[in-house]
Design goal:
By secondary structure, the chain is α/β, with parallel strands linked by helices. It folds into 2 domains: about 1-120, Response regulator (Rossmann fold); about 125-220, Winged helix-like DNA-binding domain superfamily/Winged helix DNA-binding domain (Arc Repressor Mutant, subunit A, Orthogonal Bundle), CATH 1.10.10.10. The chain contains 8 helices and 11 strands. It starts with a strand and ends with a strand.
């Protein structure tokens, strides 16, 4: 995942870059609006963190120009302004979210992950690592081709991607994925998880689906 950080306060920019890099993101930093617009015109990002008060061109103006160019990359505005009118202005200029300074990195990370997931869903594709799940064709897209998933493997993977980093029990899977009001005595959940896990591990060294003893399953994609 690539993030562009546009922040004129070097200390804040460096801190965000280091923390996101530690989380496995690929980051780039710009310190003013002009440089940001030039970089955005040439490179693709999964999300833009944009400070409101930038030299030369404000973050709000940068956001407006991005949207006028039909660039739909998710944008989060960072600002010390906390009035409701400022939040309205931020959203009206095309920003997807708004975070008030001072902030914790944990809050920024949670907002970023949530927004990226929401954006990917809106594109009918859910991307993870070097693969993606096509919500229209029910196929798993890999670097070497497409795999048509059986119905329940597709539903299970979609559910895991919607609930990443959260332990889900067998009972919850039965209710939310299989739409059952009871827990079956068969091992249908375990078999489906095993088959899906095997498919994913054919195309990645990442162990996406982890079994948590006595609790259920945990899906981690980064």
């Amino acid at each position: 995942m690539r993030i562009l950080i546009v922040e004129d306060e070097k200390k804040i920019a460096d801190s965000l870059r280091k923390n996101f890099n530690d989380e496995g993101f690929d980051t780039k930093v710009c310190f003013d609006g002009s440089d940001a617009l030039e970089v955005i015109s040439k490179e693709k990002f999964d999300l833009i963190l944009l400070d409101w008060r930038l030299p030369e061109i404000t973050g709000v103006e940068v956001c407006k120009r991005i949207r006028n160019a039909n660039n739909r990359t998710p944008v989060i505005l960072l600002t010390a302004l906390s009035n409701i009118s400022n939040k309205v202005e931020a959203l009206n200029c095309g920003a997807d979210d708004y975070i008030t300074k001072p902030f914790s990195f944990e809050e920024v990370l949670a907002r970023v992950n949530a927004l990226i997931r929401r954006y990917k869903f809106s594109q009918n594709m859910i991307e993870f690592e070097k693969m993606s799940l096509n919500l229209i064709t029910h196929t798993l897209e890999t670097e070497t081709g497409s795999i048509k998933l059986p119905e329940m493997e597709f539903e299970l993977l979609k559910y895991f991607l919607e609930n990443q980093d959260r332990i889900v029990s067998r009972e919850v899977l039965c209710e939310d994925v299989w739409k059952l009001k009871y827990t079956p005595t068969t091992n249908v959940v375990e078999v489906t998880v095993k088959n899906l896990r095997k498919k994913l591990e054919e195309y990645s060294s990442n162990k996406f689906i982890k079994s948590v003893y006595g609790e259920g399953y945990l899906f981690i994609s980064n």
